[in-house]
Amino acid sequence: MASILRDAGYRAEIVHEDNKYHILTGMGGYKVILYLYCDGTKCTSLDWDVSFSAASKFTLTLANKWNREKRYAKAYIATDGAFFLEYSLDFTGGVTRQTITASSNLFERFVTGLDAWIDNSSH
């Protein structure tokens, strides 16, 4: 997975924490974490996650509006007020390098377009 990201132009650092692995990358100047969900040697899905520190612009109303208007990436507010965007890709039936790259590019567009979407949503 890390090599697919690198080939697509992303940095990809494999991180080992709590007996689990994830991949750390960057998109639009933000730290993005990719989680692989695997049973032994077979992986069944992948999640992209980005979090933003609590701020007054990140409200439950905003997260709900995102979830109504946007497909693929979902938003939520954590108990500490942090705002998260999360995108999942299911591997059922197989997945190609191109699918991983296209999905990464799509999530990057969500991340980089978030501020403009928030500005346009507040009017």
Word description of this protein:
The chain has 123 residues and is an alpha+beta fold. The protein has one domain: Yope Regulator, Chain: A, CATH 3.30.1460. It is built from 3 helices and 6 strands, in the order αββββαββα. It has helices spanning 2-7, 60-69, 97-121; strands spanning 13-17, 20-27, 30-39, 42-52, 74-77, 83-90. It has a 6-stranded antiparallel beta sheet. β3 and β4 (42-52) form a beta hairpin. The protein is globular. The relative contact order is 0.17. The mean pLDDT is 93.
Brief synopsis:
With 123 residues, this protein is an alpha+beta fold.
Question: What is the topology?
Answer:
Elements: H1 2-7, E1 13-17, E2 20-27, E3 30-39, E4 42-52, H2 60-69, E5 74-77, E6 83-90, H3 97-121
Antiparallel strand pairs: 1-2, 2-3, 3-4, 4-6, 5-6
The mean pLDDT is 93
Helix run count: 3
* Percentage of residues assigned to helices: 25-40%
Overall 3D geometry? globular
| Radius of gyration (Å) | 15 Å
**Head-to-tail CA distance between termini:** 40 Å
Which ranges are low-confidence, i.e. pLDDT below 50, for 5 or more consecutive residues? none
Please indicate the count of domains: 1
Helix-strand sequence: HEEEEHEEH
Strand residues, percent: 35-45%
| CATH-defined topology | Yope Regulator, Chain: A
Helix-strand makeup class: alpha+beta
Largest sheet: 6 strands, antiparallel
Major sheet strand order? 1-2-3-4-6-5
